[in-house]
Amino acid sequence: MSKATQELPRTLGVLRQSSFSEARIADRSVKDELRSNLICKIQRGEALFPGILGYDDTVVPQMVNAVLSRHNFILLGLRGQAKTRLIRLLTGLLDEVVPYIEGCEIHDNPYRPICRRCRDLVAEAGNDAPIRWLHRDQRYVEKLATPDVTIADMIGDIDPIKAARRGHDISDELTVHYGLLPRANRGIFAINELPDLAGKIQVGLFNIMQEGDVQIKGYPVRLPLDLALVFTANPEDYTARGKIITPLKDRIGSEIRTHYPAELEQGISITEQEAWLSRQSPVDVRVPDYLKEVVEQLAFSAREDKRIDKRSGVSQRLPISVLENVVSNAERRALKTKEAVAVPRILDLYSALPSITGKLELEYEGELKGGDTVARELIRLSVGKIYNRYFDGANMGQIVQWFDLGGTLKLDETVDSATMVQQLGGIQGLMEKTKTLGLTANEPDAVRGAAAEFILEGLHAHRRISRTEERGFAAEEKRREGPRDEGKPEKPNFRRQYN
Q1: Domain range spanning residue 105?
Q2: Number of domains within the chain
Q3: Rounded CA gap, 19 and 360, in Å?
Q4: Do 70 and 39 reside in the same domain of the chain?
């Protein structure tokens, strides 16, 4: 407990004489508190939900309206859309501390106790009733909805052991063991994946939301709980018949839709914020902008791909995990080759396949091809799109001609950067084109080599040169045979050959 908390009033009498007077605390509900603090934040121009990107013009204004309206609300969205993070940030709109009656399981308001034990205590002790303080972080309760959740878990149950120890009748209110909802009293109660709750639990929820009445094992207990209720759900489950009961849906004040980043730059900002890139390492890790764009484009391409289930979505965790994996592969290579600088290459994306395939829910067509093949095709598509952002309309004829005249190049995944640059430097016009990516002649070999490889991968993505693991194909043969068969899986440890 902090020093500031220790100096706060410790009895009801002292509390009444403090700034936490009855006029300020008694009738101020949690929703009033959230609304009041939100208004102050808006007036001061403070960030309402720090760390949340891409929602400034969509989700955040709707959440603000819901709080200002004192609504219980639900966030509807696919996985990886920051729904849980958003509702957890609501604690920032609560007062730093609030008083409650010491020993109360449901943190009763000292001026308006609702449980039998606290009403009796205040009646007997009066101004000497002991007071404790609850920090805002302790006023948030979260529950993941599962089909096995019971009424006892959510609301409470009769505790026969408590009755026996204290000599109470089994029907006495003092024998109740409170569930999660009552224990969240005077705070925020959040339920993730609301439709997964059994119907009878949903009935108990809307009864509390509307009337504040609870029945525990047939015994009626009047608990006018002071709660702000927030929920999350997948839109598919929320609208499906039998998943959500209509009376509960009707009592949720606002239905707010979340979404994935609308623009590539927004996605990159989110991924950079969340990915573990600032890591302690013996090598200097540098991630090129074009590689960040390719990683993010991978998620955008997957969300548009008809072979991937749109109802499950493609989580924002995919580019985060991929970028971390790509950086780790570059770090591993630099450590093995004893280089001072580690720069991820497009090649490293294929080493990050384990962080891609596990996050893609495939439709039937995708299942036929296999997750590994779909992921490889998405990588090639993404490389091609980002290549166009930098080199659309650029004359690459000199590079292509070098391969058409019989030139080949093998790039081993584990080769050091100096050797790689030496090999790439033999291709006429290639290193000159890296200037378009913002490179100078003074850049480390790792940076220059990665940029040149990106150009080659972009040409391959547009089928202007071919690439295989074992051998290359002549331009004439490639054109005669048509597009390369992507159905054959590639080896995870690569030797790139361009023709």
Answers
A1: 3-257
A2: 2
A3: 55
A4: yes
92 CB neighbour count, 10 Å cutoff? 17
pTM, full prediction? 0.86
Task: Give backbone dihedrals phi and psi of 493, rounded to 5 degrees, phi first.
Answer: -105, 110
Whether residue 125 sits in one domain with residue 227: yes
Banded model confidence at residue 237, pLDDT cuts 50, 70, 90: confident
Asked if 350 and 379 touch (Cβ cutoff 8 Å), the reply is yes
Q: How many residues does the chain have?
A: 499
Q: In terms of DSSP bridges, do strands 176-178 and 156-158 run parallel, antiparallel, or are they unpaired?
A: antiparallel
Residues 448 and 375 in one domain: yes
DSSP SS3 for 122: helix
What digits encode the pLDDT tens for the residues 121-178?
999 999 999 999 999 999 999 999 988 888 888 887 766 556 556 555 555 566 677 8
Residue 209 shares a structural domain with residue 320:
no
When pLDDT is averaged across residues 67-78 and rounded to a whole number, the result is: 95
- The amino acid at residue 395 is N
- Provide the 8-state DSSP code for 4: H
Beta strands in 28-130 (DSSP E): 73-76, 97-101
* CATH code, domain with 158: 3.40.50.300
Query: Cα separation of 31 and 468, whole Å?
Result: 62
Question: Of the residues 257, 278, 303, which one is the last residue of a structural domain?
Answer: 257
Does residue 186 sit in the same domain as residue 268? Answer: no
Same domain for 131 and 202, yes or no, is: yes
146: its two tokens: 């599962």
Q: Which of 257, 287, 306 is where one domain is finished?
A: 257
Tell how strand 73-76 and strand 254-257 pair up: parallel
Residue 313 near residue 365 (C-beta atoms within 8 A) = no
What's the pLDDT tens digit per position in 329-380? 999 999 999 999 999 999 899 999 999 999 999 998 889 999 999 999 999 9
Backbone angles phi, psi at 276, to 5 degrees: -85, 85
* 173 and 302 together in one domain: no
The tokens for 331 are 């770090």
- C-alpha dist (Å) from residue 147 to 21, 150, 403, 404, 458: 43, 8, 60, 62, 48
The SS3 assignment for 130 reads strand
